[in-house]
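Justification of computing resources. Each target in the renewal requires a structure prediction run like the one illustrated here; the chain below, 172 residues long, is used simply to show the kind of job we budget for.
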Amino acid sequence: MVKDLLDGRYTKEKSNLKKLLIGSRMTEVSYNETFNLLLRQSIFDEKDGEIQMVLTIDAQCWFGNKDEWLTKIETIRDSNSDGERMDCLLASELVRLRYNNLIQVEKIDFLKDYLTITFQGNNSLSIAYYAESEYAWLLEEVSPKKEQERMMICCQGNELFQNNMPIYLEEI
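Resulting structure tokens:
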């Protein structure tokens, strides 16, 4: 039997993801085969200042109710594939959040098959746990540190991985 992320495992990883994301602000959106959200967070003490992170999404994702999202995709009349239409609609929603300054993360929920990130105005972005690539999503520190020294939390399937989480993060 495959366990899911709701079975009580990965409590530190989930807690650290929430601490890093809740209260952060999405300052930039980019797309290059994956969606990348640049986030800034000021949860550390003054000597550390602000931290920048990038959330890379490489799994199926949607805004709001999934069934309504898929219906919205079907209403787009063009010659593009479903995947291209989904990407266009997702890009549009992310830019709408940025443009209207609804960029602060207010809530994180780990549900049975996906993660939901709720931004201001009750705008929820859901990301599936499974992807055909190496990861479904990856939250990584943006810094001049070497790659293996950066803070990172990653999801693939029913597993979460983290690396280089500072001890004081657990105290917040």
